[in-house]
Design goal:
The complex is a heterodimer of chains A (463) and B (221).
Chain A lengths: L17 H4 L6 H11 L9 H10 L5 H5 L1 H5 L8 H16 L1 H5 L1 H4 L6 H10 L8 H5 L6 H14 L8 H11 L7 H19 L14 E4 L3 H5 L1 H14 L3 E2 L14 H4 L1 H18 L3 E4 L3 H10 L12 E4 H11 L3 E2 L8 E3 L13 H10 L3 E2 L25 H7 L1 H12 L3 E4 L2 H13 L5 E4 H8 E2 L1
Parallel strand pairs in A: 1-2, 1-3, 3-4, 6-7, 6-8, 8-9
Antiparallel strand pairs in A: 5-10
Helix pairs in contact in A: 2-11, 3-11, 6-11, 12-17, 13-15, 15-24, 19-20, 20-24, 21-22, 22-23
Chain B lengths: L2 H30 L16 H14 L1 H6 L1 H26 L4 H25 L1 H5 L3 H19 L6 H12 L12 H13 L7 H13 L5
Helix pairs in contact in B: 1-9, 4-5, 5-7, 7-9
Classes of the chains: A alpha/beta (463), B mainly alpha (221).
Pfam families (chain A): CCG, Fer4_8
Organism (chain A): Desulfofundulus thermosubterraneus DSM 16057
GO molecular function (chain A): 4 iron, 4 sulfur cluster binding; metal ion binding; oxidoreductase activity
Chain lengths: 463, 221
């Protein structure tokens, strides 16, 4: 380990290492070239309209700041104001790509880009989880989130992206089948281990099908769940088994066996490569429905972002969240639950990607109310839910002191919310949220645990 | 009648309206022709035309986003916006020949004046908003304030008979520039305002259609 202190470029944190950011090298010209491309309809059709409208139309009223978790949690620190962040890009946009900014920079707040400003911007776009709470309340529906994401895209185009998301994220996933780098042999061992675990805790053995062709349901989890949140994987398997449906998991032997798509966080090129690999895998297996496990951004990607990227005839399967299935099966009486098996008070965290971005508000609530007698709402919730701070890749980013940032901003607000419920369990249906809750509970010493929705449901199953 | 007078009262009105219509039209067409972006909705959102209309009208008339989340901006913004709505209404009732047009115009002018003034003060005195403001933000508000003052204090908004005849002369393409002699300053400011709007964020009333209907409320229905 090198003991040399990392150069400060924005605040006291550094998510981008010197090797990635290369703070001493000239990158401004490259950045401006990539930004010019991002502003062209043809080059950037995927987000051109929300992006340019958001650059052009902000009225500077500051409504976004009133709901931004980072700004609020840091005691309204100027550098964490959502508009301060987006203005860092907007000033460049005005200076180099608009006439008034070229002619009268001072008047319209246009500024030259320097290497120092570039460094600061690269870091600051990783201080926002793109939870889009601000966009929800903006009177003009300006989206700070899309600007942050576009800035991340520009940086990625010039080779600046966190290793966690690219080298050890999308690149690894495309090569190994999953972003954890778990080979097929290890995966199959893991599944067997989970079967043993279920037998040990429940007293009965179930068979977890893997790589079954033509199954009705292909359940794809966030592969990190097998290592970190195995209870969710086991819970889902028990539910599938109890429902008596024709289902399967898949191993890296069949292609991609990881629902994640970190491209959602920083790059359309990566996003598109991963989702095409997802589709290819599902087609090869000939399954009818692709079930997204408890993973927020994977749901957003496979349910919504995919729609205009890949024509319907090229994806001959339905995409559905495990929550929708579980909710449906409980209501149909296909699976039976005994809520008394989960006697502790339970609260639910709306993951941004499932809730505000996915519309999945009622399904998890109906499931939890059916299998937990003491269900308590957190306030605020649903579309005004506070991001836990694990979003947009943060959950797997720790170095450069970043864990502290996650805990002291989003984490602190969330801890306060959790405490106020008096619940003993916080349920959620997103891996990134779980990874963040694991740390929040530890860091803020909360007398509670986190659990997957499927885990609580499996615990309440009546055989 | 000198050349400047004729220009302001006889020619510029057409130029300004043309700029406004074509400038704004160009931007709207440009936005409408944008390639269809990936789905980027925020839930929950209104699904039917009726629900969307209801939500949009509520937002336009009450600015309830500001009311709920940024209360200190709400009243000043509401005053300024209602002032503009009334001034648009003034133009209509004036042309239709209603005598109460004078009240509508004056109330509108007063609201725009009070709204823009308080928004200006708010932007100047509130450190958080000041820090995210560029000079152009203040200039826009001063522009609106000056426009409203000149409309009010010159008597333009209240002089309904004369203003009506003048507007009718414009509408029939027989501009009677001579009768507008006393109102050259408010006229000029208004014309410049019309020219200015399409190229600035003040066109947000049009941009908003896209940010709401095409993006936030999406196209899933």
């Amino acid at each position: 380990m090198s003991a040399v202190a990392v150069q400060k470029v924005f605040d006291e944190y550094r998510v981008l290492s010197d090797e990635v950011l290369k703070p001493g090298e000239p990158r401004v010209e490259k950045f401006l070239r990539a930004m010019r491309k991002s502003l062209q309809q043809k080059e950037n059709w995927t987000f051109w309209l929300p992006y340019t409208l958001s650059l052009d139309t902000c009225m500077k009223c500051g409504t976004c700041a009133e709901v931004c978790p980072v700004y609020q949690a840091t005691g309204r620190k100027e550098i964490y104001h959502p508009v301060y962040r987006t203005d860092m890009l907007r000033k460049i946009y005005k200076r180099y790509f608009t006439l008034p900014g070229k002619l009268f920079p001072w008047l319209v707040g246009a500024e030259d880009l320097t290497e120092e400003k570039l460094n600061a911007l690269a870091e600051n776009v990783y201080r926002c989880t793109i939870c889009r709470r601000c966009s929800y309340v903006c009177p003009v529906a300006i989206d700070n989130g899309v600007i942050v994401r576009e800035a991340r895209k520009i940086f990625d185009a010039i080779g600046i992206a966190p290793d966690e998301l690219k080298k050890k994220g999308t690149r690894l996933q495309l090569q190994a089948g999953n972003a954890t780098g778990m080979p097929a042999v290890a995966f199959l061992d893991m599944v067997e281990f989970l079967e043993d675990e279920i037998e040990e805790t429940r007293g009965y053995r179930i068979k977890i099908p893997v790589d079954k062709e033509g199954a009705e349901f292909l359940l794809m989890h966030n592969a990190g769940d097998y290592l970190a949140f195995a209870e969710t994987v086991m819970g889902a398997a028990e539910v599938m088994h109890a429902a008596g449906v024709d289902w399967t998991l898949n191993s890296p032997n069949t292609g991609i066996n990881d629902a994640v798509n970190y491209g959602v966080f920083y790059s359309d090129v990566e996003f598109s490569a991963v989702i095409k690999a997802h589709v290819e895998t599902a087609r090869k297996l000939g399954i009818k429905k692709l079930v997204v496990g408890e993973c927020g951004h994977a749901f957003e990607a496979l349910k919504y972002l995919i729609l205009r990227l890949i024509p319907p005839e090229e994806r001959p399967f339905e995409v559905i969240s495990i929550l929708e299935l579980e909710d449906r099966w409980i209501r149909e009486g296909r699976i039976k639950v005994d809520p008394q098996k989960n006697p502790e008070p339970v609260t639910f965290h709306d993951s941004c990607k499932l809730g505000r971005l996915g519309g999945m508000f009622e399904e998890p609530r109906r499931i939890l109310k059916a299998c937990c007698p003491d269900f308590r709402e957190m306030t605020p919730n649903r579309e005004m839910s506070l991001c836990c701070g694990g979003g947009s890749g943060f959950a797997i980013m720790e170095k450069g002191g970043f864990l502290k940032f996650r805990m002291e901003t989003y984490g602190r607000l969330k801890a306060g919310q959790l405490k106020a419920t008096g619940a003993k369990v916080v349920a959620c249906a997103c891996s990134n949220c779980k990874a963040q809750f694991r740390e929040i509970i530890n860091y803020h010493k909360l007398p509670m645990r986190y659990a997957g929705v499927s885990e609580l449901l499996a615990n309440a199953l009546v055989r | 009648m000198d050349f400047g007078h004729y220009l302001i009262a006889g020619v510029m009105p057409y130029v300004a309206v043309a700029f406004f219509v074509f400038g704004l039209g160009y931007r709207i067409v440009y936005w409408s022709k944008a390639p269809m972006h990936l789905h980027w909705e925020l839930f929950p959102y209104p699904h039917t035309m009726l629900e969307q209309l209801k939500e949009m009208i509520t937002e336009v008339l009450t600015l309830h986003s500001l009311y709920r989340f940024n209360r200190k901006h709400w009243l000043p913004s509401l005053m300024m916006h209602w002032g503009f709505y009334l001034l648009v209404g003034w133009l209509v009732v004036l042309l239709l020949g209603f005598s109460f047009a004078a009240y509508v115009g004056t109330t509108g002018g007063v609201l725009v004046l009070a709204g823009s003034f308080s928004l200006f003060l708010l932007r100047l005195l509130d450190a958080e908003v000041r820090k995210i403001s560029a000079p152009v933000e203040y200039i826009n508000l001063i522009f609106v304030f000056t426009l409203a003052s000149s409309g009010l204090f010159s008597g333009f908004l209240g002089d309904i008979q004369l203003v009506r005849s003048y507007f009718l002369s414009l509408l029939t393409f027989k501009p009677d520039a001579s009768i507008a002699a006393d109102y050259l300053i408010p006229l000029l400011l208004f014309e410049l305002f019309l020219i200015y709007i399409p190229f600035t964020r003040m066109a947000h009333f049009a941009a908003k259609f896209f940010t709401y209907h095409k993006i936030k409320w999406g196209e899933l229905h």
